[in-house]
Amino acid sequence: MDFLSNSTHLHIFSWVVGIIMFLIAATQPLDSKGRKITKMVLRVFYILIIITGVALFIRYMDSNAALYGVKFVFGILTIGMMEMVLARQSKSKPTQLFWILFVVSLLITMFLGFKLPIGLNFFA
Ligand code: HEM
Predict the structure, then answer these.
(1) CA of 1 to the centre of ligand 1 (A)
(2) Is 102 in the pocket of ligand 1 (CB under 6 A)?
(3) Cα 85 to ligand 1 centroid, rounded to whole Å
(4) Does ligand 1 come within 6 angstroms of the Cβ of 8?
(5) Residue boundaries of the structural domains of the chain
(6) 53: Cβ below 6 Å to ligand 1?
(7) For residue 73, which of 42, 98, 50, 40 has the smallest C-alpha distance?
(8) Residue 26 near ligand 1, beta carbon < 6 Å
(9) 49 within 8 A of 79, measured Cβ to Cβ
(10) Protein residue whose Cα sits closest to atom 42 of ligand 1
């Protein structure tokens, strides 16, 4: 899977589009067609985020297994929080806590990603 892990571009593309799809889905009216379609597209992007993330992980984790492990967990957690917001919206339950958890896990995931050695290194 060399084409997936030679650079972080595909991974970045996947999570940027994923987050945009999530924000669109979350702000569409419940039961609207737009919400249904953006949620379907979002789920395809979850898969892309995970495939490209795992490919990078397998290839580069040896340099710092602990930090790569934490990045992995927070990446999955960020996706989990997006799903929690959407699921609770659908059930008309409060979502504030899960919005906060989404933002916090997103910031931690991005910080770790940019700190780790491959691709961009804003926090090296
Ligand atoms: C919404 C979820 C995610 C976000 C926002 C995110 C964000 C990022 C960012 C900002 C980078 C740095 C790119 C660069 O430096 O050029 C990165 C790299 C990486 N991500 Fe993710 N990611 C997410 C999900 C995942 C998942 C689920 C995994 C693992 C299954 C993963 C594994 C990795 C790995 C291994 C790297 C390379 C780290 C490095 O050495 O620089 N990511 N990610």
Answers:
(1) 16
(2) no
(3) 21
(4) yes
(5) 2-115
(6) yes
(7) 50
(8) no
(9) yes
(10) 53
Q: Tokens standing for 94?
A: 């409060």
* Cβ within 8 Å of residue 31, ≥6 positions away: none
pLDDT in tens, the chain (124 residues): 678 888 899 999 999 999 999 999 999 999 999 999 999 999 999 999 999 999 999 999 999 999 999 999 999 999 999 999 999 999 999 999 999 999 999 999 999 999 999 999 988 7
Whether the CB of 10 sits within 6 Å of ligand 1 = no
Structure-token pair, residue 3: 């084409």
Nearest to 24 by CA among 37, 11, 10: 37
List C-alpha distances in Å: 5 to 39, 57, 60, 110: 27, 9, 9, 17
